[in-house]
Amino acid sequence: MSTVNSFGAKSTLTVGSTDYEIYRIDAVEGYEKLPYSLKVLLENLLRTEDGANVTREQIASIGNWDAKGETSSEIQFTPARVVMQDFTGVPCIVDLATMREAVADLGGDPTKINPLAPAELVIDHSVIADLFGRADAYERNTEIEYERNGERYQFLRWGQTAFDDFKVVPPGTGIVHQVNIEHLARTTYTREVNGVVQAYPDTCVGTDSHTTMVNGLGVLGWGVGGIEAEAAMLGQPVSMLIPKVVGFRLTGEIPAGVTATDVVLTITDMLRQHGVVGKFVEFYGDGVGKVPLANRATIGNMSPEFGSTAAMFPVDDVTLDYLRLTGRSEEQLALVEAYAKEQHMWHDPSVEPAFSEYLELDLSTVVPSISGPKRPQDRIELTRSKEQFAKDLPVYTDVASKPSAVSGVTGEYTIDHGAVTIAAITSCTNTSNPSVMLAAGLLARNAVAKGLTAQPWVKTTMAPGSKVVTEYYEKAGLNEDLEKLGFYTVGYGCTTCIGNSGPLIEEVSEAINENDLAVTAVLSGNRNFEGRINPDVKMNYLASPPLVIAYALAGSMNFDFDNDALGQDQDGNDVYLKDIWPSADEVQSTIDSSINTEMFTRQYAGVFEGDERWKNLPTPTGNTFEWADESTYVRKPPYFDGMTLELTPVSDIEGARVLAKLGDSVTTDHISPAGAIKADTPAGRYLQEHGIERRNFNSYGSRRGNHEVMIRGTFANIRLRNQLLDGVEGGYTRDFTQEGAPQSFIYDAAQNYAAQDTPLVVLGGKEYGSGSSRDWAAKGTRLLGVKAVITESFERIHRSNLIGMGVVPLQFPEGESVESLGLDGTESFSITGLTELNEGVTPKTVRVTAQPSEHSPAGKKTVEFDAVVRIDTPGEADYYRNGGILQYVLRSLV
């Protein structure tokens, strides 16, 4: 791509004996007052300026950024690379594989289809903690994982060999965000462009919301939906507004007895109260240099929980020390330092950039905390946890005590409301941070020395973020103490945090369900939403790894660590939490003596190679994938069926029917397939017809590579309210192709409309498509036959995703709505004026005519209005003309 370079920013940076082409941000007036994160965006635009997608005006708008003003300036951000996990990454690779066949069908060279931005996928979302508390738990869980997911893994292994610039980290290695900070992230990226080696800030987008963990390393990145990730992989920019930046000053130091987890729960609480949705948060001030990098990563990781797009730490000596510890080369370290200093991106605590808003935290004021029972921002000081539990319990159950006798392998015991049934050291947020992981190991050692044991009803699991953790546990001799308390490693992956907690102890589960007990889970994760962790568990709490172990010993949320004893020692003395809590000095000296660079170098030496299981997978070869007719996990989607090299002209929409009439705040979670697949649904029926037993249905997430399952789960959320029906929840609609327009599944009705060549529209209210942006919310909408979505307002990412799938987003005229216009959804819709796009013009509005049909009430009149066309950029207009972003890229490559 040739750069216009209208600011004359192109320059050379020499580090050692190597020359790098760089784009100097000091060529743009106003650069010096910008926060670090906006300097990164400024460099990005300078380097990618092409005069069309990225213009001189966009670059100047960052230089002229008004910290206090409202920004409406849209920019096109081109990330250096893309990071994926296996649930959301599989559909991206399915689409690339399908594009290869489409290129071949159009007479082109299929090997031309490769990621244009480097893409890395880490398989970490599929391991489930089925077995626990025993030495072979890891081995057996991995075997079961391969049995369940073999088809997907074969496909990803084919992708690893077939595509250039696409790498796969096999199962059992670690969690994507951990592997990202320990190995994949460069902080300063280098790439050969047109025969010259360029250096520029490492940036990334990821298909998982906690991609922000890498912000701790000075890398700007965040989570996006699968469609934007695919677009970024194919060299397309991410469209975004220049954000507000909230400056967060850190002062003081963390006191003894307080963990990084306590700090992050405090920051989450503060930022949620302040309101940072859609903004960047950036940390600055004297305290930043005292925050270890693992703690910075822990804070960055929780960005989705406090709602910001990113949570940045600038580059400084702490960044360099971490890069050195984790085995990055001396050449890379020299480049990172030289580049950051040359580009005015090195953190200087004495300089305060301009920020939109300001917050401050004195780290010395943080106290031990947990968070729950259902949101990450519901912080509770540990000293108040017992009384807060008593206050929260009535929301979940009849509070009368229900002691329930349980007879298990370990003998007889009694559980009641508040029983801790899962204690899980899990998730990317904490399981990489040596200060909390070694504190947990030392607490376990002290507990074992006092003769304490975990309660028999607690499912205890350990899922480290990377294999380095296991190695430093072994070097410190702490693994045996952890295992004596039941914390055997169950796998290297997300496990409990994403609901892969596996079943509870069988007799405990029976007692819970027989007696309607409100039991609890305590996990070192970042998500504790209702129903997420385990179907038997009503109340979920986030806590640091050492507190997870403390709660396994206590066995109940109805416990006061200050005044209740955890048990007795060998001499019959009461043992309290303070008696076994390790000192800060002991934790630090253990870190110093048990972690070294060789561990990282050794564990990551063959990170893309995998174990014998991975290497022995029977894997297809060849440039195009051999789709298996019998596969229910990976299918070839129909996006390119019948596609030609010539554009099919955009046509107006005639005689469309309403598939769903929806209210305000319908989220992508309402639209996207998610969770378990029920037998009596279109997706369940499909799997049964293909010989899959109910116990092997797996989840929608694991079947994201099969559009047949996903389309049947679109608009099928059990909480969706389609106003075409009265008082009905779930994936249902009225089928206007049938006599009397009876209630039917949305998927079944869509099939009937397709058989009659009837286009479909969806009507909505305000904030349509908010929520974590999900690729299938747009893909499923398109595959159901929806041509237009008409709402009062859109969430930005879902709006662009709809265009990326060839669906036009339209808005009611200002101040109008479904109600004010008198639309009831029984009408037949026509939309005229879209054909202007064929002349290269994007119309501001189109004419919508809603005519009564045979199903409309008597006396209903025709309604006409001018809908606003929400195709907002030239790039989006190109995507829509081509029928979608994939078709646009395909034609441009052929």
From TrEMBL:
Q: Which cofactor does it need?
A: [4Fe-4S] cluster
Q: Which GO terms describe its molecular function?
A: aconitate hydratase activity
Task: Report the catalytic activity.
Answer: citrate = D-threo-isocitrate
The Aconitase A/isopropylmalate dehydratase small subunit swivel domain sits at 685-814
Give the EC number(s) listed in the UniProt record.
4.2.1.3
Superkingdom of origin organism:
Bacteria
Provide the top EC class.
Answer: lyase
* Pfam families named in the record: Aconitase (PF00330), Aconitase_C (PF00694)
Could you tell me which residue ranges the Aconitase/3-isopropylmalate dehydratase large subunit alpha/beta/alpha domain spans?
Answer: 65-555
Write out the entry's keywords from A to Z.
4Fe-4S, Iron, Iron-sulfur, Lyase, Metal-binding
Is the Lipid metabolism keyword given for this protein? no
Q: Sum up the protein's function in the record's words.
A: Catalyzes the isomerization of citrate to isocitrate via cis-aconitate.
Q: Which family does it belong to?
A: Belongs to the aconitase/IPM isomerase family.
Name used for this protein in its record: Aconitate hydratase
Q: Which organism is it from?
A: Microbacterium amylolyticum
What does the record give as the organism's lineage?
Answer: Bacteria, Bacillati, Actinomycetota, Actinomycetes, Micrococcales
